[in-house]
Amino acid sequence: MQNRFLGTAASLDRAAPMPSRLVGKRVARGCVTLLAAFPLVDYTLRQFLHPLGAIWDKVVLLILALVALNRVMRGHRPDVFAWSKYAGWYIAYLIALLFVGLGSPGTSFDGFRADVYDMLFGLLLPFVVEPEDAPYFLYVAAALAMLIGLDGVLQYVLAVPIPPGWVDVGEHVRTRVFSVLKSPNELGAYMEMMAPLILGMGFAEKDRVRKIIFFIGGVFCLITLLLTYTRGAWLGLGVGVVLVALAFERRLLAVVVVLGVIGFFLPPIHHRIMDLFSQVYYIKASQGGRLVRWQQAFDQLAGNPLFGAGLGRYGGAVASDKGLSIYSDNYYAKVLGESGLIGLVLFFALHVRLVVEVVQKVVRRAVGPNRAIALGGLIGVIALLVHNVVENVFEYPANCLNYFLMVGLLLLWSRTFDGQEENHG
What we know:
It is a multi-pass membrane protein. By secondary structure, this protein is mostly helical. The protein has helices at residues 25-36, 38-48, 50-53, 56-73, 83-100, 105-128, 134-157, 184-204, 208-227, 231-247, 253-265, 267-274, 279-287, 290-302, 317-321, 331-363, 370-387, 397-414, 417-424. The chain contains 19 helices and no strands.
């Protein structure tokens, strides 16, 4: 059967389903569909069926693991991702730290779970998703992101009330949108990853109606990103676009110019950016803000530079809940403080290899309309990694899971390129 692609197959949802070649395909498809719609599913279940909302993703992970195990026992041996090996080294190191920290087993286990849990979904993907099905899940994720983008714009129009702590002293904004993710920072991170991917789908799409839908949805996502007033997300997307433009597509620099002009002429956005360069912001950052929090990471490291303070003991949600540390507002500082230089090197190696694999397998091999989606996906990946410099983005389950899910789906989708490359050539 011909390989399908989001942009070239306007009939993606109308195409006849492929015959099930692997055991549990329908179950796996349903589970991965839920993961692609994670923000809405998680919000709905926690809002209306809280007991189920607290465990549903664990149930999904267990089901996928059982499906994968069943397939492996039946002889199914898909190619795993290249970054999986680096993830294995990182996880093995964290397991060693987990045993070292058994003096406080609850804290160590919670810290280990927080660092590894969402990664497991990405590692399982080759065993539960067939490459030709990857576009369907990308389509589901894009559709949900567009709905959330629309919801964000509506929240701004309705001036939904927000806590005063979401706005800096002396700052006047109509509202900061948050949608079903319940936090403007979390929503900003979600939009910075999904918006470029959706716009890439718009450029790749051949059907006129779908192209318009993708472009309108992508614009809604960008507007919502702006209306979160999350500077880290703006920074991440800007750096992602610039790096990808310089490496692969110089015409993308025009996007940076347009966004820069918008930011300069819209007073709330202009004020929020320029506030970063004010003496007042520097004083606040030095007294109790990001600068002092980053310094604390090195203070934690001083006692044990190689291995850090221990899992769950610094910089993240676990340490904060247990009264051991405030948030580091830098996920890399969090990794450094709790798992030391060795942990940070392994963590960097994992994500550098992941980006390299996306470049080699997706971007460099994508031809024709596929390239727009490949570049959009890469921009989103880089944006989220950059955003982690100024915020604990991977502490947000929706964003950490979405990161590994989107990367895995893009890499699986690239495995359908062989026939397309020949046809293009």
